[in-house]
Specification:
- The protein is α/β, with parallel strands linked by helices.
- The chain contains four helices and four strands; from the N terminus they run E-H-H-E-E-H-E-H.
Length: 125
């Protein structure tokens, strides 16, 4: 462990957990931040690139919570390039309600990330 090792931390955050994660960066050193890969799902705060070692924000197109970060959210919707935000799902269905971590849209991403982890690191029992 430690900042001198080649280890990394993969940190998943959902909803307000994304905001908590974004605020916690102020408590860490640049060396510690560089070791952390952050993945958010339906976060109330879309975390920008460069704040941690790696950052990816997944947002369901029918999730209303990420709209609380309007600058980033609407920049993407209206054609702006936000490289670390991936919108998942479609606009079909009831709007603003697809926020649950176990929703099909977020579950699909989580399953893909899990399969990628197992492929890279192996399965732990």
């Amino acid at each position: 462990g430690g900042v001198d090792s080649d280890c990394r931390i993969i940190h998943y955050a959902h909803s307000l957990g994304g905001t908590d994660t974004n605020m916690a960066k102020n408590l860490l050193t640049p060396e510690e931040l560089a070791k952390i890969e952050v993945v958010t799902f339906g976060s109330a705060s879309l975390i920008t690139e460069g704040d941690f070692g790696q950052v990816m924000n997944y947002v369901s197109r029918r999730d209303g919570i990420p709209m609380t970060d309007p600058f980033t959210y609407f920049a993407f919707i209206f054609g702006g390039e936000v490289p670390n935000v991936v919108f998942v799902g479609d606009y079909q269905g009831i709007p603003l309600v697809d926020h649950f971590f176990d929703s099909p849209n977020y579950r699909g991403v989580l399953d893909q990330l899990g399969a990628s982890f197992i492929e890279q690191y192996g399965q732990f029992i």
